[in-house]
Amino acid sequence: MTQSQESFSDLNDNGLLDLDVYFDFTCPYSFEAAHWVKDINDLMGSDVMAVRWRFFSLAQVNAEKENPGVKIWDQSSGGANTDGLLAFAAGGAAYEQGGEDALLKFFMALGRLYHVENLSTSDPGPIAQAWKDAGLSGQAPDGSGQLNLQKLKEDHTEAVEKYNAFGVPTLVFEEHRAFWFRLKEHPADITDSLELFQHIQRLAMGFPSVESYKKVLPEE
Prior knowledge:
By secondary structure, the protein is of the alpha+beta class. It has a four-stranded mixed beta sheet with strand order 2-1-3-4, sandwiched between helices. Helix 3 packs across helix 4. The N terminus is likely disordered.
């Protein structure tokens, strides 16, 4: 499917809608957003939309609240505030092996095991299973050696320093407009998915005077 140039602001001037999606493997809202963005990306096509999957650690956010200046990617797995580091290491390895596509497949596979089947992201077993389900070659990191968390370090640091990100999922349009939100459940219908995406895109990119936005829900 193609989309007219006028339907989005091409701030990067490359003919594509660039979208960075910051996520944490343990965040259910990130998992739902990943399904949703994948549906949109499949609909629009690579000739219209370019998605990059970026890491953001909620454990790092919580650790900094207790100990300002701490960086969990400098610690070994199993230390304080390092829950989920093995997932980030495996995700980084998937990215090195096959780029964005491999990382997304691993994210979706591990997300199903964690959010649907209630398995751990810190256990080598589910990590290895997700690695296999994603069709990756070789062995997934199992935590027995030093974890390579360079992608986590770079992505999280950029999210905070460049976009003042504080949580996930955070969408960044054209490397300029960041939008944090919570999606309880991704739309089952692609028309609803596209409509939601267009609303968020317009709000994020078309109304710079809107500094923050929060939907107020009544008590049930």
